[in-house]
Amino acid sequence: MKLTRHGLHSEMIEKIERISGEEISKCYQCGKCSAGCPVAQEMGTLPNRVVRHLQLGQDERAFEAEAVWFCTSCHTCESRCPKGFDLSRVMEALRAVLLRRGEAPVRPEDLPAELFAAAPQQAIVSCYRKYVS
Amino acid sequence: MKYGYYPGCTLHQQAEEFDVTTRESARALGIELEELDSWQCCGAVFPLATDAVINLAAPFRALAAAYEAGVELVTVCAGCLNVLRRTNNLVQNDDETRDKLVDFVEEDYAGEGRVHHLLELLRDEVGFESVSERTKRDLNGLRIAPYYGCLLLRPPDEMEFDDAEDPQILENMLAGIGAHPVSYPLRMDCCGAYLPIGELEERRNRAAVAVMRSASAAGAEAIVTSCPLCAHNLEQCAQDVPGAEMLPVLYFSQVLAYALGLDADSCGLEPDGLHAGVCEKIGIGEVK
Amino acid sequence: MRKIGVFVCHCGLNIAGTVDVKRVAERCAEIPGVVHSEDYSYMCSDPGQNLIAEAIEEKDLEGIVVAACSPTMHEPTFRAAAEAAGLNPYQVQMANIREQCSWVHPDDEEEATRKAEGIVGAAVEKVRRDEPLVPHEIPITKKAMVVGGGITGMQAALDIADAGYPVILVEREATIGGRMAQLSETFPTLDCASCILTPKMAEVGRHPLIELMAYSEVEEVSGSVGNFRVRVRQKPTYVDWDACMGCMQCQQQCPSEVESEFERGLGTKKAIGVDFPQAIPNRPKIDPEHCAHLRGDFCWLCSRSCPVDAIDYEQEERIVEEEVGAIVLSTGYDMLPQEVLGEYGYGKYPDVIDSMAFERMKSSSGPTGGEIRRPSDGEIPKEVVFIQCAGSRDPDKGQSYCSKICCMYTAKHATLYHHSVPDGQAYIFYTDVRAGGKGYEEFVQRTVEEDNALYLRGRVSRVYPEGDKILVKGVDTLSDENVEIHADLVVLATAVTPRTDAREMARIFNVGTDEHGFLNEAHIKLRPVETTTPGVYVAGAVRGPRDISDAAAEASGAASKVAMLLSREEMETDPLIAEVDEGDCSGCLWCVAACPFDAIEEKYLTRRVGDREVSRRVVEVNVGVCQGCGACTVACRDGAMNLKGYKDEQILAEVESICLIAGSQQ
After folding, report:
1. pLDDT score of C579 more than 50
2. Is B239 a residue whose pLDDT tops 70?
3. What is the model's pTM?
4. Model confidence band, residue B288 (pLDDT cutoffs 50, 70, 90)
């Protein structure tokens, strides 16, 4: 990869920092978040690697990571992080950017009718909030 | 002391047994719960984006309404507790966001109110010994695994519900009502939340399966939770794991209310259905 | 009118980049009495100091102002330059136009220059009224005290004693040796810790100039450099150490077994005895809270077994007062207790131990006889996980700093484990590997290449028991995968912390601590073994995490500072202290109450009036103790007390000067 000072501090990175309220440089890549993430196996890319992409200015690779949509906002990462870095907020910021662009993983019309009868309201509302544009 | 009760949308629909047993438990313990006059869905998740202020409007309004009515809020749904408590913290500490909410919702509220979970009231106001004295039924040492999940405990510095690495409040409550609490390592791990709903995980919900297995391996006969989403995920993962050791899933208030004297039917305990094993152990549905 | 010289420094661009130094020099030349005023690029340099010397000689200057950096930087420099040229060094005044002017107003040159003019003008008014002062000479007590008897304290005491000065070594435990006595081997040589330590302990024990006060603590310190008075509390051991022969029959016979802190939870000790066999002094003590007799039960077993009748259940503590000229603080460190690490089990899992417990296990005189075994069932562990950074580099919930020694001792542990259990596997979870010392990097590489340790780069999120193993959930960020290991034994490299009572101790000795509780040195780079309290020195881990090599070096450094101090016949005290005008003093004693150093005493002046003796009460300042803080001058309601060099009239003259200059700048 080729690095330049412009690429490292792009507008998109600043936007993610603003929406999440976290400074990306705070993470020192110790990996404790990944070690405790309940869905790390499903994620493909480990959560600390997503932050590394952002640190290297590779926001598109961060957006492409499936990890973003598998995150359940369980806050285990943030509660154990030695730097107090809130990774859940960074994941939310990545989702927010994608959802606001219209790139949502779930469309309401595709959800099966039985779901609305079987699943608790809490589940449906949270699904909509996290996955629907 | 009278409290403002915030059931949350799910307790009024899919999780009615959670609502009924919560009210009855509170009544049996002398806690006065009065449902708020008007409230909306809290939003189910606390918005983590700093600019998603509109999503805070509903919980803000609930908090302001309770404060104005002169009551402190009580809820049992873990999702609602998480949203309401974190919204209250935000309003206390973030002047800019608070001003926006005050303007939009047209309520002048600065986070002076408080939000409680029923279990916290039992621990801090009533006392578990007092709960113990008021039990009317013997649970026959039913081995119950408490499941905390994420939303009650984390973020630990905001929720301040219990020790996030070694919570004991549910264990203490269960011991107080004559059950045998079974602690197990994954009782604070995530159940998968909205992942299965979004159908992103076409395979089984590994997170929920891991929790269930951990509880089962520790020798539990049932699992209790305080969250309709967790309850749903734990029940559903049974269908995805053929042959696995699946435990009946109940809300904590169901066993609490039953122990305090409410009839099995009102507690939502089904001797012929999902809860057969549990009911048999504690003597429900016996032909006398 | 006294002839004053003004020297305005550019300090390169530090001052001149913001302040118009030429203008300031010109402005000062107009002040009455200023007969010399110039600016120069670097006043502290040799040419700069020569300018001062030349001006003093040529123009017979009676006072100089050097407008430059802060006096903490260069006041001694310019005082020395003036003295060499024949001017009393206390007729030198620095005007800080850098830290207090150019550095805080970088964007407003006009304002900065005007402010500089004000500062320098005020300094001129002050120095004009400075009197020549001569430091007092006071005798020095040629004796030192070292507090803390670990390797650092022992080395310092030995060096001071070998330099010919008597030294008192105060140690809180009943034996010297400190943390090193708990270790098995030391990196990078794998020397047996006891083997290299005990000769030093023996040397300390028999050195004619070292007085060893074991099982003692310092309660209070008064006085100042060269003349400290220290009160030491000698705790009761309940054994007459003079009569005792060290046979340890008492320890064998004692029926009370309790958990031993020395063994880090892995072993027990008796209520009477020594912590380890090579203890010096080789004398037992009784723990009152664990002794059956002292708790009121009927037990005389130790007393009956003692062949020389040395047990004394009635023994009381003793307080001794000592006078010393210098003090070295070397009280070492503590380790973060496992009880605060929730994700690693809060210390509740027997097979999750900390690194010091591992040392005790490996130590041949330890609870397992030098064998590495699982505390739960005594089996030999075949899969051992080492977790570095447990509580370190953790600003959120732990200590923010790096504990420095863990990377090296963990590599050592993995090496020793491999030697003991050749078919076992060591896994080390690390964040970085810090191996900067001599031979350290090579040592770590040998641990990997010859002793089969597997280094996994990442932290461990959680451990918990599963079956009879401990499940470790970590990550290897190098391969981008989470890692799960069912370990037989988990060893946590817990953070090095200050002693729990470090701040309390710092208060007693009047030294500062940092935000963590480690003692502050006077300057981290250039004065690492001194403190800002003259006569009190620091060495070793009490300053922060460090290994034995550095601690021993610092011990010798502190000892040399002590020798420097004690080698002088007399000591000069700072003359900038309080002085009372007995004629004005009304004897109200408010100054005595205000003085934090107990440096003022009442005094009676008597004279004959006719056939009677008339007595009048005044005060007297103890020139050896007064630190020149000025509190008494504020308390004095008669204006009789003044601080030399900072008399009321001088300060008022400065204020007036600033007002006049500011007024004229409008």
Report:
1. yes
2. no
3. 0.87
4. very low
- The answer to whether C344 and C463 are in contact (CB under 8 A) is yes
Task: Collect all residues of chain C within an 8 Å Cβ-Cβ radius of residue B165.
Answer: 342-343, 346
Q: Is residue B257 part of a domain?
A: yes
B185 with C343: Cβ contact below 8 A: no
Write down the ipTM of this complex.
Answer: 0.93
For B166, the closest of C342, C465, C466 (CB atoms) is C342
**H or E element that contains C466:** strand C460-466
Among candidate residues C659, A75, A37, the one with its CA nearest the CA of residue B206: A37
Pick the CATH number of C333-497 from 2.60.120.260, 3.30.200.20, 3.50.50.60, 1.10.3210.10: 3.50.50.60
Residue B277's pLDDT band, with cuts at 50, 70 and 90, is confident
Q: Give CB contacts under 8 A, 24+ apart, made by C294-297.
A: C294/C238
* C469: closest CA of chain B, how far (Å): 13
Å between B134 CA and nearest CA of chain A: 32
Q: What is the pLDDT of residues C144-194, one digit of tens each?
A: 999 999 999 999 999 999 999 999 999 999 999 999 999 999 999 999 999
Smallest Cα distance from A29 to chain B, Å: 21
Shared-domain flag, residues B145 and B276: yes
Render pLDDT for B173-185 as a digit per residue (tens, 0 to 9).
999 999 999 999 9
- Cα dist. B175→B28, B30, B257, C333, C425 in Å? 18, 20, 14, 42, 42
Q: Is residue B6 located within the same domain as residue B96? A: yes
Say yes or no: B94 and B163 in one domain: no
Given the candidates 1.20.1280, 3.40.395, 1.10.1740, 3.40.50, the CATH classification of the domain at C4-133 is 3.40.50
Which of the residue ranges A2-16, A23-37, C163-177, C630-644 would you say has the lowest mean pLDDT? A2-16
Q: Which fold has domain C578-644?
A: Alpha-Beta Plaits (3.30.70)
Q: How many CB pairs under 8 A join B and C?
A: 11
C464 with B185: Cβ contact below 8 A: yes
3-state class (DSSP) for residue C575: coil
Chain B neighbors (3+ CB pairs < 8 Å):
A, C
* Residue pair B132/B176 in contact by the 8 Å Cβ criterion: yes
- CATH code for the domain of B275: 3.40.50.11810
- B251 inside domain: yes
- Chain C positions with Cβ closer than 8 Å to B: 342-343, 346, 464-466, 471
